[in-house]
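Researcher: Sequence of DNA-binding response regulator follows. Predict its structure.
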Amino acid sequence: MPADTEADKAASVQRLSAEQVKEILIVDDHPLMCDALALTLKISFGLKHVRTARSLGAAVEQIKSQGAPDAVILDLNLPDARGAEGIVTLRRLLPEVPITMISADIEASQIQASLAAGAQGYISKSLGREALVDSLRRMWGGETVTPEGYEPELAQEEEEARADLARRFASLTPQQMRILRLICQGKANKEISYELSIAEATVKTHITAIMSKINARRRTQAVLLANTVKLFEAG
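Model: Prediction complete. Tokens:
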């Protein structure tokens, strides 16, 4: 189902016809799902090769080494990322590439958080082949596609505020994102220092930068803001 307000926010994403999409990256840690989806795309769009990655980290490294794909299909839950973190991270690397979130979880709040973070659309893993192919064609053409029956839970003003917050999180460096994830897990600076093998003073410097970028005054506020956009947790 199209959503004009989300389409407006995704205006910077390039519009492509299916014929222009020559290289797709699927990021999904489930081998059977990944292989089945890759085969479906090859047959439906006449692709010779579909790139795959089993984690967000692997996807980032692949993009850096092999270049940007024409489109991305991203699983909601990965071994190293849950919720909107994957979209926020990839959107920073791929500002104009359509990113489709795919998941068995079609909870309205999660869909809305994903769209606010920069997803071009959100589709259910239960979709049949024809519906999946049609949804991807529409998304690549610039339409925002969501599961049937989806209704946003937030008013437009709240939705825009969440999208702005997601953009602020996208400004964090990978190391700052790792530190923020540990903060959300309740880790103290000393624990973060040990886990990331960096000096505690460096941790404090990063935290200061994080707080400035996301406009938070305290760690608890930073955690609440991350939870608002479902940055590290799905559902």
